[in-house]
Write a structure and sequence with these properties.
With 596 residues, the chain is α/β, with parallel strands linked by helices. Helices cover 29% and strands 14% of the residues. The chain has 15 helices and 17 strands. The strands form 4 sheets. Strands 5, 6, 7, 8, 9, 10 and 13 form a 7-stranded mixed beta sheet that branches. A 6-stranded mixed beta sheet has the order 4-3-2-14-15-17. Helix 3 links the parallel strand 2 and strand 3. Helix 7 crosses helix 9, helix 11 crosses helix 14 and helix 14 packs across helix 15. The longest helix is centred in the first third of the chain and has 18 residues. It is globular. The chain starts with 6 loop residues before the first strand and ends in a 5-residue tail after the last helix.
Length: 596
């Protein structure tokens, strides 16, 4: 039977795919495993039947409301093979050699279907990327203002029989970029570099090193033309760039996205140090953010900060996390227009969007009060006691010293980088580290830091519990911390849990007085929706209607009864969350998209 318009069939691939086995074989395999009654089948059955009431609220239909997409962690795997074992990273079908003590009955390989396998360690098949691209093109391209894409398009390097190469990383980015450019031909797309977009993963040398230059140039070519031409020198230098994504309706200004290179702050990157040394690449990026925020203030623009790895004390080196939070956090509550508080001059950070963890959560940043006004020798404050800026902040503001030279030679120019900037610096950047030296090993889900054999240090085993403890630390502070921000992690396309993305709603123009949200400033985040793809069911269908491939899982405001996504609303909601056991249970379920 011929497919109707909007359907995907086995004969309508957008990109090449290795998957050949469909239909009855998948049904038979699913039935067999479900009959076996394994834990894996139980989880999948629960996942398949999991649903959340999809309220049909129309409160976001105002013409004053704009929308944008946050998509992350595509992890494209051209080697994915339908019917393969999860033990082989979904690269080989049985029979193949397994360890003597490996229980193949619990492997779940019968569930590796056309669009991937949920709750496993396999990456995204081309068929899933195709379907995602087509769904976004048909359902969302005409409804969105711009797209945020926060990295990790290369597959994981978890299969020793098929080690990942640098060229394969770029191939993954080529495919992801082509899919998004195909879906969104008329609106801005902002790409970002993830820890699996570099080789080896997590490791990225400082600007000027041959491998760093090769990585940045290859990614820029892969994403072209998504990095603006006038930002190419900056991206070739440090892997970060700025891009105007929308102008507000009926007034001057708009939103500028800053695509950050979080690998220069990441604890697991052994190639660079912290952010205290004057020639630290992490500190240089903080200076660049300050420079861009000054430009945004002068141009009356708000800022979106997007990156791959979430900023917190576990992910970032201490001096980098403190520097990031100091640079980007804002006042709580926002100061009155006639306030003498100097923080009122801070540019409005519209949102801070990250990926990497595959979960659906948000967190506070800047809750540690001890460093907010810190002027210790490690941060080298100015000698002028009335000047509250740190030495590097003053260099940025005055365009003097090392960072003044970077502004003039790189960050504010669209010409070819000076030859001196591209000269390899053979100094060992590891030697610049003045944070405690930390080595890292990987567990199933976390990077585990180990300082030495006698000092045990690890990340929290329960991600949600660690977040709740952070919420408690924020709420018990009296008086409230003068600086606070909110970061969000969007769920991923890779089916670590289930393929998902977020649609954010924001105030694009000022409503008339008396209308809903008329009292809020333009640019305020209002809400977000989470969409998911039930690939367990979709894998069993010969024909797929791409228009309904993703469906709405929940709307944040309906689920948690809040009015908007301002910091004050998050604070009120965190207080309710900590006081309600039922709400914490719901929060945990939604964090893992209903699979836990």
């Amino acid at each position: 039977m011929a497919a109707r318009k909007g359907q995907l069939t086995e004969t309508t691939p957008l990109l090449p795919t290795h998957s050949k086995h469909r239909g009855k074989r998948v049904f038979a395999a699913v039935a067999a495993v479900l009959a076996a009654g394994s834990l894996f089948s139980y989880l999948l059955l629960a996942y398949c039947n999991y649903s959340i009431a999809d309220t049909s609220s129309k409160r976001l239909s105002s013409a004053a409301v704009g929308r944008y997409l946050h998509i992350t962690d595509l992890h494209v795997d051209p080697n994915y093979m339908e019917g393969a074992t999860t033990y082989s990273q979904c690269h080989r079908r049985p029979p193949h050699v397994l360890p003597p003590d490996y229980d193949s009955a619990k492997d779940g390989h019968a569930h590796t279907g056309r669009f991937g396998i949920p709750l496993a360690k396999c990456d995204s098949p081309i068929a899933l990327i195709n379907a995602t691209s087509e769904h976004l093109k048909r359902e969302w391209a005409h409804k969105l203002d711009f797209v945020i894409w926060t990295g990790d398009s290369g597959r994981h390097d978890g299969d020793p029989e098929q080690p990942r190469t640098f060229d394969q990383i770029i191939q993954g980015n080529d495919i992801a970029s082509a899919a998004l450019r195909s879906a969104f031909k008329k609106i801005p797309v902002v790409p970002n570099i993830g820890n699996n977009d570099v080789s080896p993963h997590n490791e990225l040398a400082a600007p000027g090193h041959k491998r760093a230059r090769k990585t940045f140039r290859a990614l820029e070519r892969s994403w072209r033309p998504l990095v603006p031409k006038d930002q190419v020198p900056t991206f070739h230098y440090g892997g970060y760039f700025a891009k105007d994504v929308v102008d507000y309706d009926g007034r001057k200004g708009g939103i500028t996205a800053l695509s950050l290179n979080t690998i220069y702050w990441y604890r697991a990157n052994a190639k660079v140090g912290g952010c205290r040394a004057k020639d630290s690449p992490g500190l240089a990026q903080l200076a660049w953010i300050r420079y861009q925020m000054r430009r945004a203030r002068m141009r009356n623009r708000d800022i979106i900060l997007l990156g791959h790895v979430l900023p917190n004390r576990d992910n970032y080196r201490p001096s980098c996390y403190h520097g990031y939070a100091r640079t980007v956090t804002q006042t709580v509550p926002p100061p009155a227009l006639n306030s003498s508080d100097s923080s009122e001059e801070l540019v409005n950070v519209h949102a801070q969007l990250f990926g990497h963890s595959n979960v659906d959560v948000w967190a506070f940043v800047g809750q540690e009060a001890k460093w907010i006004n810190s002027h210790d020798a490690l941060l080298i404050a100015t000698e002028n006691v009335t000047d509250k800026r740190l030495w590097w902040e003053r260099e940025v503001d005055e365009e003097s010293g090392r960072f003044g030279k970077l502004i003039r030679d790189v960050w504010s120019t669209d010409v070819t980088l000076h030859a001196a900037i591209n000269q390899p610096d053979e100094r060992a950047w590891e030697d610049m580290e003045d944070d405690p030296q930390v080595h890292f090993t990987e567990s199933a889900d976390h990077i585990v830091p180990v300082v030495n054999a006698t000092v045990k240090q690890s990340l929290p085993s329960d991600f949600v519990e660690s977040l709740l403890k952070e919420f408690e630390r924020v709420l018990v502070q009296n008086p409230p911390n003068p600086r606070l921000g909110v970061t969000t992690i969007s769920p991923s396309i890779i089916p670590k849990y289930v393929p998902s993305f977020r649609i954010f709603h924001y105030l694009r123009s000022q409503p008339a007085q008396g209308e809903r949200w008329w009292h809020l400033p333009v640019g305020t985040l209002l809400d977000y929706d989470v969409y998911w793809a039930n690939i367990h069911k979709l894998n069993t269908k010969a024909q797929i209607d791409v228009r309904s491939f993703f469906t709405r899982l929940y709307r944040f405001s309906d689920e948690y009864k809040i009015d908007d996504l301002s910091i004050n609303s998050y604070l009120k909601w965190a207080e309710r969350l900590l006081s309600s056991k039922a709400l914490r249970k719901r929060f945990r379920s939604l964090t893992y998209l209903g699979t836990q």
